[in-house]
Amino acid sequence: MTEALIHALEREILADIPLARAMQLQIAAYQPDGLTLLAPLAPNINDKGCAFGGSLASLLTLSCWALVVLRLRAAGEDCDVYVQDSQLRYLAPVWGEIRAESRLAEGESWDGFFAMLGSRSKSRLRILAGVADGSGKLATTLDARFVALRREAKSSAA
Amino acid sequence: MTEALIHALEREILADIPLARAMQLQIAAYQPDGLTLLAPLAPNINDKGCAFGGSLASLLTLSCWALVVLRLRAAGEDCDVYVQDSQLRYLAPVWGEIRAESRLAEGESWDGFFAMLGSRSKSRLRILAGVADGSGKLATTLDARFVALRREAKSSAA
């Protein structure tokens, strides 16, 4: 069930977002509390030979977005999920394959997220993500807020 | 002279950064105090039919980076320029061509930037950028810090 959801989401991302295809993104792992995206360096390289900041920003943001989307789908919720704002820190260059890992920010809970979604048909959540360099140290970090909006709520509000 | 620098930088970006080619980025305008990047919607679309957040983040960041690089080159400085951190706000969807415009943040000055570069061979600068929606209202904003490092300084430090 979960495997099917992961593969379906990966196919959708690659089909619907040309830049995800250009980055050669794949969903490498998903657990209820974290998601890992992978992308090879070659299509994501910059003028200095390391990972392009735009690829890092995109993959970090998508690793968070995909985590929220999969949690919602696994719970049978039909929502649109949007990124609201984010903070990025580029701490060190990334010279190899890009592995973006996301998880819930401290102080956030899935129970609280789903409870608010249940009562308001809309909910918010802060997610953290990071890319490590070859030695395992964090090279790029993202701290972002996402909004989920039930599709039924959206159409009846429109 | 300036036109030649602009075209040379655009060629370099497109040659060295595969994702910039995928986004079909072009430098549309450069003045000493601001730079505009353009990209069509089609290669930068997302699953909802509007501009992909990763494309917006990439184009906003590159509009700032290119502004700093062109100012440095116009002054005869040979530097590497890195983004250090950034804050992005996604305020509204972008449904058409993406136009990312950058300018110096308040409280920053090019004179101060070049003075520090002259004395330390390294300097920092905060740049703002925005993408407007079809009606001219800001749809996405970026506030980012960049570091410029003279290449000679870098090699002698390595």
Structure characteristics:
homodimer, 158 residues, alpha+beta, Thiol Ester Dehydrase, Chain A, six-stranded antiparallel sheet, 5 helices, 6 strands, 39% helix, 35% strand
What does this structure look like?
Two copies of one chain form a homodimer. The first copy, chain A, is an alpha+beta fold and 158 residues long. The first copy, chain A, has one domain: Hotdog Thioesterase (Thiol Ester Dehydrase, Chain A), CATH 3.10.129. Chain A has helices at 2-16, 18-23, 53-74, 110-120, 151-157, and strands spanning 26-31, 34-39, 79-90, 98-104, 122-132, 138-150. The first copy, chain A, has a six-stranded antiparallel beta sheet with strand order 1-2-4-5-6-3. The first copy, chain A, is globular. The interface between A and B is medium-sized, with 35 and 35 residues. Strand 3 (79-90) of chain A pairs antiparallel with strand 3 (79-90) of chain B, so a sheet runs across the interface.
